[in-house]
Amino acid sequence: MQTKTAIRFRQHYNALLDLLLPKQCPLCRRFCFDNSLCADCWQELIFITPPFCQCCGRPLADAIGDHLCGSCFAEAPPLAEI
What we know:
mainly alpha
């Protein structure tokens, strides 16, 4: 458990780091105000929607059978046997 002094020190330390080393978007390197992407890069993201391969995440044309893409169906991934 942290003491109140340790918590305050960490908060001040993090605020100082944010001032000296502002956070940058990992995609475009523009400065942003949180730990994620900048607003422009976030807007450009394309999220996959079902159906997709349950093993590798590749988008599928349709959801027939066990929801595996051809590659994962043909050759079981290494962790599938664990």
